[in-house]
Structures are given as structure tokens and as C-alpha cells.
Write a structure and sequence with these properties.
The chain contains 7 helices and 5 strands, in the order H-H-H-H-E-H-H-E-E-E-H-E. It is α/β, with parallel strands linked by helices. The termini are far apart. A 5-stranded mixed sheet has the order 2-1-3-4-5, covered by helices on one side. Strand 4, helix 7 and strand 5 form a beta-alpha-beta unit. Helix 1 packs antiparallel against helix 2, helix 2 packs across helix 3 and helix 3 crosses helix 4.
Length: 203
């Protein structure tokens, strides 16, 4: 893990403007909360901003969200830098890989997944691949410990990975496809490998 900083000034756009659709979405989120509690919409709006802004959140975008919510800029900056779901610098055009590095995933092969990232994307996290298609980072628990090791790409998790199956996931993204999320072995969600072992009888 590393301290999270905004991208350097030379990578920051001069301004950010909501698309009409995203501005309407933001206003819908704000309307969900009582007067004076609009700040509660910050996370939902930041996520939509990130989707609009090529997968990352710029300083200008943070300021735009803060102004929309009538919040001090530093408050929205605190949110954006706290949650690893928000990317603070340009990420891969086809996929930004978040590798879970918490204990269950580490015990079941997260180190192998990181090695794949280092060999296929870049030696260091938060750097773009040569063609700009991929980037990666190590994050804390992504919440699928039973299916460790796992990664997160956008909103989708890819679980029960090995070096080989992770390579196939990357190959799919590289070819412009979206691989099927979830377990990458014969498992339904977090059910036992090989199917149910108890409560098999139905009445």
C-alpha cells in the first residue's frame, strides 16, 4: 500500500464540466438527502465523475463536485484520497487492475497475480503499460475472501484466480472483450468447490 496523492500538475486538466446526463444524476443523488446533508451524495457523484473522466478523478473534478455540493474542496479531497475505488491519476484505457493483497488472498496466491501485473503491465503500481491499455495497484480487502485470490476491475470482481486464468482475463481485456466476472473456476458464487456438500436433499 502507498500514500495516495493527486496526479502531478502536468497531468491535471485545467477544468472539469459535468455532462448533462451526469449533472442530472448528481442532482438526483442530492435530492435523496435532507437540506444541509447534501455532502452525503459525494461518493455516488465522485464515482460517476470517475466514469466520465476516463477512469480517474482529477483535481478539477474534485473541485467541481465540492462546488456542486457546497462543500470545502478539502472535504471532497479527503473522500477521494481515502477510498481506493477512486483513482487519482490516469489509468489503463482497457483496465485498471486492483489486486487484493490482504491475508486470505496473499495466502492463496495474490503474490502470483502481482508478478503477472509486474511482467505484463509495469514493474511498479500506478504506472501505465507501454501501450497505455493497463495499469495496476495492490489494495486492501475486496470482500471475497472465500474465493481468494481475486482482483477488481471497475465494478466487477474476478475470483479464484491462478497465474494462468488471470492471464486469460488480461488477454480478454486486451482484445476488447469484457471477461465473465466472478469465480474463474467451477464454483457458483461462494458455494463450495464441486457443488453443495450439505442440505442436498429437497422435500
Amino acid at each position: 500500500m502507498s500514500v495516495r496523492h493527486l496526479a502531478p500538475k502536468e497531468l491535471q486538466p485545467a477544468s472539469f464540466t459535468f455532462t448533462p446526463e451526469n449533472l442530472a444524476f448528481a442532482k438526483q443523488q442530492i435530492a435523496k438527502y435532507p437540506q444541509g446533508r447534501q455532502a452525503s451524495a459525494a461518493i455516488a457523484i465522485l464515482w460517476r465523475v470517475q466514469e466520465q473522466h476516463d477512469g480517474w478523478v482529477s483535481e478539477a473534478a474534485i473541485r467541481a463536485v465540492a462546488d456542486l455540493l457546497d462543500m470545502p474542496h478539502i472535504r471532497v479531497l479527503e473522500i477521494a484520497t481515502f477510498y481506493t475505488m477512486f483513482q487519482l491519476q490516469p489509468v489503463g484505457k482497457k483496465a485498471h487492475i486492483q489486486v487484493c493483497g490482504t491475508t486470505p488472498c496473499r495466502l492463496r496466491g495474490a503474490g502470483d497475480l502481482i508478478e503477472v501485473c509486474q511482467s505484463r503491465i509495469h514493474r511498479d503500481p500506478f504506472h501505465l503499460s507501454t501501450d497505455g491499455s493497463f495499469s495496476w495497484e495492490e489494495v486492501e480487502c475486496l470482500g471475497a475472501c472465500v474465493n481468494a485470490p481475486m482482483i477488481l476491475v471497475g465494478k466487477d470482481t474476478y475470483e479464484d484466480l491462478t497465474k494462468e486464468s488471470f492471464g486469460k482475463v488480461l488477454d480478454a481485456f486486451a482484445s476488447g472483450q469484457v471477461p465473465k466476472p466472478g469465480p474463474q473456476i467451477d464454483r457458483q458464487f461462494s458455494a463450495p468447490v464441486g457443488g453443495p456438500t450439505t442440505l442436498k436433499e429437497t422435500t
